[in-house]
Every structure is written in structure tokens, then in C-alpha cells.
Amino acid sequence: MSGKKHIWLITTDQMRGDALGYENPAVITPNLDGLAREGMVFNRAYCASPVCTPSRASIFTGRYPHIHGAWNIGVSLNEDELTLCDHLKESGYHTIGVGKMHFREQCKTGFTYEAEEVSVRDRGRERDGTYYGFDEHHISEDNMIGEYLDEIGERDPDVAGRLRKDLFRSDDAAGDVWESGLPPELHQTRWISDRSIRAIEEHSPDQPLFLWSSFVDPHHPFNPPEAYSRLYEHTEISEPAGDASDVKGRPGHLLLQKGSYWPGGGELHSRDHQHMKRLIRNYYAMITFIDEEIGRILGAWKEKGMDDELLIVFTSDHGELLGDHGLLYKGPWFYEGLTRIPMILKGPGVKKEAKTDALMEHVDIVPTLLELIGRAKMPEGIQGISQQPVASGETERVRESAMTAYDAHDRGVHAKCLRTDRYKLVIFADEAYGELFDLESDPDERYNRFFDPSYQEMKHKLMEMLVHRMMRDQDPLPVRKAFW
């Protein structure tokens, strides 16, 4: 054995913090529930941004979207940024990424829906030829083109053709909701787990391994294999928080959104209850499929004898509105269902059978992992705070607030959200209005207190806290090395 801890980062796409069995009994996730029992659950972890690329880049750099350059989808992570892979390789790690990365645009420039060439999308950095520091990468994004679809084409050309044609859309599909006839053994979720298992099997335990297994689901369309959707046929589904009438309390310019005008969606839906229940059941079914595959990968770590010194982090890039407040998908909103993400830490140095309400952000993952593997000095430029003292049980918290940002300044909206234990404040650039929710008295976020006279003193305190956060969150690089 190397004597160093192996690291397994598991991410999903668009998964809510309340979409796991240990918090929501309706969801079947025995393997993730097991990791939660054996490690620590951060109940109040929040995404860097409510859309994919900015959050993924923050997970991997420990830096905020306005600093690392990928401020929204359709914008690439700056190739000059140092990533978790770069830091780990300095400590002797072999680094492998499998699944969805989304550090670059998936579509060609010019605001077309034409897919970017795989050779361009997955190209190596100019400075070292690697994909953002990975020694190996096996990428499959939302559109499936690349290694996954190529491999399926070799195994079963008919299945690959059907995927390219309509993703196995069923005859009774409604919008982006259906039960798929795609065999589970040929599904993208299975491919990601198979490729992760192969990486473990082929790796020498004498060198510490960093493996990122990045699942594309439960991102829409909500189309699990039929076998998994059947698991939820008789499951009682709770109603989403709020309803479409909540639109009346939203800031004015958000009322103007239509279709996919806002990057990342966030569409106001007009679906009936039966449709929404089908959608939510399928969403849960996709998660159950992922959970099953996580169990298979965990078995490979054990079979290889690499699980004793294994650090595991499970999280998601952001949540899913899932009908809350009349909305679906993601976009320029900061409701809990969209911004609160699952976060489980397990392994050496992490307290077992523990849950914490300590606030955590995506940018905290990099410094936390580096401290847990015994990194003597934290690299310059990292903006996150190590949660190691919380994870070990040494202290209750290291943060007083969590920040989430949505930047679509090219489309007319730029907002920042400050979350404390009790309150949530949202400020929109150049606008007099905003949002303020008292989560203690209003956990479903239905009553905007931004202009409520009884909340003005608290609003001003939160705005002052936000200003200080924004000042501290500027880029600490370059480091000053001389007096003048």
C-alpha cells in the first residue's frame, strides 16, 4: 500500500439535498445511506451556482465563479486555473476522471445547439496536454457523444442508433418525462460505473489514486430505465413546495422569463398533479439507479483492498426545482431545492455516524480534502475554507454564511445569495428589489420579506455581511512578494 489515502469524489448532476433515503424515505438509496451512516452528513451544504459549469469548476478549483472564469454555462473554465488534480499530483496521486466534466461548452459557439466536436470539447490544456490536470479522462456529457456512445455503437449498433435518434423516447412520453426501454447494462449511468471500476481494477495500490465518478443523471430528461421506474409505482409522492402563485412574489424581471431564455432553464411549468408525480417518481428512479452503481464501485474498492484508507466525498453540482414554486430544472433562483446540495464525507479523519448543520460551500471541498490527506501547506489562491475541523468533530462550524451566485449579465440578470443559519438574502445587480426569507418561520420560502418593515434591520445586517463577503471573495492571486 502507498501509505497515502485514496480519494473517491462522486458527483451527480441536478440532485437535491433532500433526495436521499436518510432524509426522504420515499427515495431508495441504500448505498448512499450506508455512506452517510459511516461518515458525516453536511445538512447545509450549498452550491456555488444554480447551474452546472460554474459549480463544477468551483468544486475542482476551490475558487468562486467570478474568479475562475466559468461564470455560467457556455463559458469555459480558465485553463490557467490550478485544479484539485494539479494539487494532488504534487502529492504523488494518479488522477482519473470518468463521466460528466462540463468544464467547457458542449455546444459550438454562435449560440447554436449543434454539438461541439469531442476533440475540441475534451482537448488537453496547452501548457501540459492534460484535461485540467487529469492523467486519464473518460468523458461523457449530456449529449452522450464521445467514448460512451462510441463503445455502445461497437457493442450494439441498434441501441446506439436509437440513442442518437430519440434517447429511447417512449410512445407515452410527456414532454421530457418517460420510462426508457434502454437496457440498464447499456445505459450511460452503467457505463460510468463500469469505467470507474475498470480504473480501480487497473490501478496499482502502491500509488494513491484520485478517482472522480461523475454521473450525468438525475438531470432531465426524466427517463430512467423501466425497471427502476417500476420500483416507484406505488410510492406516495409529496406535493412540491409552494405553487405557481408564488410567481407574484418574485422580482419583476424574473416574471419576464420565457422558455429557455435564461441559461439553465428554470421554466415555469403548467403540469397537472399526475404528470408531476410521474416526473418526481422518475427523478427518484434515476437516483436509485445511480445509488446501485455506487454500490458496485464501492465493491471494487473493497475487492482491490483499497477501501481502508479511502476518503469519499459525495455531492452534486446543484439541485433541481422539481415543481417547487411552479418551477422546474434550474436557473436564476435560490430556493432550497435548487441551491442546497447533498454532501457526505467518509473516511480516515472523518467522524462516523454524524450529521452537522454547519454551513458548507463547494469551494470548501478542495481545502478539506487537502487537509485530510495531510497537506502541510495550503496552495495559494484557494478561496474555500477547510471543513476538516468540522468533519473530525473538533469544532461545530467554520462558516457563518454560504454564498451562491448566478451571473447571466449578458442576459440581464446578475444575483448573489447569502445564506445564514436562519435567513436567505438575494440581491440583484442594479435593482432596488430583492428577496429575503426567514427560513425559521417560512421553511418553504413563500413569503418575501425584503420590503417588510419588521425585517428591515435584519436586511441591513445581512446586506452588510454580504458586502464584507464580496470584499473577501476577491481573487487573492497573484501573491505579493515584495514591499514595493
From TrEMBL:
Residues 5-374 form the Sulfatase N-terminal domain. Coiled coil: none annotated. Keywords: Hydrolase, Metal-binding. It comes from the Bacteria. PROSITE patterns: SULFATASE_1 (PS00523), SULFATASE_2 (PS00149). PANTHER family: IDURONATE 2-SULFATASE. Belongs to the sulfatase family. This is Sulfatase-like hydrolase/transferase. It comes from Paenibacillus dokdonensis.
